[in-house]
Every structure is written in structure tokens, then in C-alpha cells.
Amino acid sequence: MSFIFTVMNNNDAFYNLVNKLQPLYDTKEATAIAHEVMEHITGLGKLQRLMDKDMSFSSEQLAIYEQMLPELMQGRPMQYVLGYAWFMGRKFKVNEQVLIPRPETEELVQWVIKSQIINDKSQILDIGTGSGCIPISLKLALPDAEVTSCDISNEAIAVATENALILDASVEFIHCDFLDNAARERLGKYDVIVSNPPYIPITEKESLHTNVREYEPAMALFVDDDALLFYKAIAAFGKMHLNNDGAIYCELHRDYAVATKMLFEQQGYTTELLKDMHSNDRMLKAIPTK
């Protein structure tokens, strides 16, 4: 697929991109993607581009536009095309080795920060490093905390390590298959355990949007047939690895939120569910019963 444009101004480029994306996305999402891409290419926000709508692309901007357009039309997520995603106001490098950070996960991080603000010298473990958005954001908000993060993917750890260096966040990253009991038992004790683990049953794969199903890392999204697989491991781990008054915070599959809550309660935890911005039960706090 190739496109050859000789002249393109801000206005034409924006509407051309929206039209090209609408077979894949609804109008609202296509428009949002187009705005983000145009700001990346031009360095101008929406208002400035509106004021300068007839300003022509430079040859360099046109080359970037022509390179990005076919990738976006194939369904490759905008964040992978741009090479970064925003999370809690910060730019994180992302590629196909890591999940794209999402606004709902920001809410999980904010819940942890709010709960720990009085005692920010916490020992914190993040399970499932990905881009590093969770542990890095926690370290930057709670600078006296000691933050450790583990992941089975060395490629994800490499991305997260780079993000930590760029954002000047001192986080320890550990390669660990958390579902391997012997491996996770080598981890320490913590005041806070936080995780956005894989929780989508593989049977739901075909129901996901193409840009998620075909591009984001499967090992970070899917479990075979047990949506609670990682939560069972986290609950068992917490009983032995939480310090006194410690707590677990997890992001959830909205369809299995109640089942996850019941699982932790059956394992001896007091639990609390929190709704996300869309009024779905998407976060859980669990504290071992004394």
C-alpha cells in the first residue's frame, strides 16, 4: 500500500487521515487518533492547527505522514506507530513487546498513591512490568518508596528499564515467571503488591478489536481458560509476602470482578471493589484478615 502526496496542508492531512481510519474506528476514535498523529507530526495543538489550517507540510513532515498512514490503516495501534503512549501525564516508550498503557490503569495507580501518601516509605512490588508505567509512576509519586517490578518477558523489562532511565525513576526490574511457585517464592516481602495481570480468556480473543488482537502481546493479555489464574497466584503469594498492614491492588476484568473478589475473600482477605470512569468494577483492594 503506497500513497504519494506532493502537497498537503494541515487541514487536508487531518481530514484525509480521519476518512482513511473510519473503516477501522468510529468517528470519535478516528478523530482522536488523527489529532494525536497530527500533533506529533507538526508539533502544533488542535487550536494552533485550526488557526494555521492552510499551512503546508514541510517535505520532512510529508514523509512522516506518508510512512505512518499505511501502518495506521492496517490497524497498527497509533501508540506503536508513534513509538510512545501517555500515562499520568508522562510519555512512555512502547512497542509490540508491551501493552499500551490505558486510562483505567491510571486510576489503579492513583488509588495506590492515595492510600500510601501518609506512609510513602513503602516496599512496593508490581507484578507484570510491561512498559513500566505502573512502577515508574508509583516511584515518581512516592520517591521514598522502594519499588520492584517483575515480568516474564525480558523484552518488556528492556523497554521498562529504558523508560525508567528517561524518567529518572529508580525501580528494580526482575525477570520472573510469577506462575512458577519456586520463582515467585524468591521474591521478598512488601507493603504493597500491585498488578494489572493477564485476565482475558483466550476464548474472547476474536471479540477484541483488531488493533488489540493482532498487535498487543498475547502473553500480557490472555489466559487459557481460567480468568482468575493470576489472581489465585497473587492471593497465595500475598499471604506469605505481605508485611503487616500490607495490601494488594489489582486491575480486573469487569466480567469477573465479583468472582475475583470472592476468590480473595475465600483466601482470607477483606476486599473492596472500585469502579472505573465507565462505572465498571475494575479494581480491587485486598487486605489479609488479621
Overview of this protein structure:
By secondary structure, the chain is α/β, with parallel strands linked by helices. The protein folds into 2 domains: 65 residues; 201 residues, Rossmann fold, CATH 3.40.50. Helices cover 44% and strands 20% of the residues. It is built from 13 helices and 11 strands. The strands form 3 sheets. Strands 5-4-3-6-9-11-10 form a 7-stranded mixed sheet, sandwiched between helices. A two-stranded antiparallel sheet has the order 1-2. Strands 7-8 form a two-stranded parallel sheet. Helix 1 packs antiparallel against helix 2 and helix 1 runs parallel beside helix 4. It is elongated.
Question: What's the SSE blueprint?
Answer:
Layout: H1 10-21, H2 27-42, H3 46-51, H4 59-73, H5 78-82, E1 84-87, E2 90-93, H6 103-116, E3 123-127, H7 133-141, E4 146-151, H8 154-167, E5 171-175, H9 181-185, E6 190-195, E7 200-201, H10 210-213, H11 218-221, E8 222-223, H12 229-241, E9 242-251, H13 257-266, E10 269-275, E11 281-288
Parallel strand pairs: 3-4, 3-6, 4-5, 6-9, 7-8
Antiparallel strand pairs: 1-2, 9-11, 10-11
Q: What's the name of the CATH homologous superfamily of the largest domain?
A: Vaccinia Virus protein VP39
Overall pLDDT score? 93
Largest sheet at a glance?
A: 7 strands, mixed
Text of the CATH class of the largest domain: Alpha Beta
Succession of helices and strands: HHHHHEEHEHEHEHEEHHEHEHEE
* Main sheet strand line-up: 5-4-3-6-9-11-10
